[in-house]
Specification:
The protein has helices at residues 2-7, 26-36, 44-49, 60-72, 75-82, 111-120, 201-210, 215-223, and strands at 14-15, 39-40, 87-88, 94-96, 125-128, 134-140, 144-149, 155-157, 163-167, 180-186, 191-197. By secondary structure, it is an alpha/beta fold. The chain has a single domain (2-223), classed as Metallo-dependent phosphatases (Purple Acid Phosphatase, chain A, domain 2). The strands form 3 sheets. It has a 6-stranded mixed sheet with strand order 3-4-5-9-6-7, with helices on one face. The chain has a 3-stranded antiparallel sheet with strand order 8-11-10, with no helix packed on it. A hairpin with a 5-residue loop joins strand 3 and strand 4 (94-96). Helix 7 (201-210) runs antiparallel to helix 8 (215-223).
Length: 225
Amino acid sequence: MLEDVSSAGCTSVWCLGDIVGYGADPESCVALVRAHADVCLAGNHDLGVVGSISVSGFSDPARLAAEWTATVLSEPATQFLRDLSPLNVEHAAALYHGSPRDPVWEYILAPEQARMAVEQSPRRVTIVGHSHVALAFGEATDAGVVGGPRGDGERLLVATGRWLLNPGSVGQPRDGDPRAAWLELDSESWAATFHRVAYDIPRAAAAIRDAGLPETLAERLRHGQ
C-alpha cells in the first residue's frame, strides 16, 4: 500500500487509527506508521490495547486479539499508541477515527448519520475510519446528504459542499473487497480518489493462525468482511 501511495505522488500520509488489534505483527505495524505517517489517530482497538478504554464490549475475537497484542507489544510502541488522539482538526480536512459526534465509537454507514456528522465538523471535508468500509457522502442540492460505498478507482470532486469520506481499511476491509483500501485526497483541486491494492492474504492469515489468534480473524481476510 505504501508503494502505491508513493507512486501516486502523495506528499503526506494520514492514518485514522486501528493500527493494532487484529493482526499478528503489531510491532511492525506501529513501526511503519511511525516511519511514514505525518498524522496518526488512535482507534478504539489501539485504545483498548493500551488500556485507555475497556475491551469488555469488544467481540470475543477482537477482545482476545487486543489482550494478546498488549502482551507482545514493546513499551516504546505502547507509549506511542498511548500518546495518540482519536481526532485531529488542524489540517484542511477534519480527521476522526469514529466521527465528530463520537471520535472513538460512532460508525458512519448511512446518509443521515453522515448529515449529523458533517453538521458538527469544523471543516467542510471530514474524513473518518472505524467502519472499515470505503464510503463517501456529500451534500446534494435537493436531496440533502447522499452517498454510500465506493469502489476502486472512483474519483469525486469535493471542491464544494460538505463531505464525509472514509478510505476503508488497509488491513481488514469489510466491504466485500479483500484488497487493502486507501484514499488519495488532493487538497488543491479537492479531488478524492479511492484505491485498492492486492496483498498477500494467505501469508497474513497464516501469521494470525501461527500466533494462536482466533480463526475468524484469519478467515475474514479472504472475504473482505
